[in-house]
Amino acid sequence: RSFELINVLQRIVKKLSVTHQRNIEFKTHIKSLNAKLNQEQFIQLITIFIDNAIKYSDKDVVISLNQRNKNVILQIEDKGIGIPAESLDKIFNRFYRVDKARTRKTGGSGLGLYIAKEIAQTNDIGIDVQSELSQGTTVKLTIKEQYIEIFN
Ligand code: ATP
Question: Which residue positions does the secretion signal occupy (predicted)?
């Protein structure tokens, strides 16, 4: 089973921007991308990262899809509060939240990224998070060549 990833991505982006009343930019030069992945799990994975980008920033979220070598990189970028360096290796842990006191107006259980990691592992998707406090966070998901067919 495979699905057209750009269509699915645009549907998620549209839905989340309406739900959260936020602008989400989507950029790609790829015409069409067939992905041999679990579609439901892919939607869940992307939704978790976009939800976080929205939740922890108040500026536009930017999503981009690019080819790198034969793989595809899906990037989710926010210009929000960022993650402290010492927390970066913990954010995928079950129930971990940077702000334990929950003084933030944003609620959450700290399960989102734990689930995301599980889904990524199941689908052989790579996750790389770069973040700078008060500057923002960039998540790069690598979808490997054996799971995709790229049409330019
Ligand atoms: P939920 O389980 O409801 O998603 P959550 O957002 O607290 O709640 P995770 O998605 O697992 O849980 O994220 C874990 C922690 O990582 C968050 O509490 C937050 O501190 C930090 N975090 C995740 N994404 C971002 C981001 N884009 N910018 C800043 N901090 C982030």
Answer: none
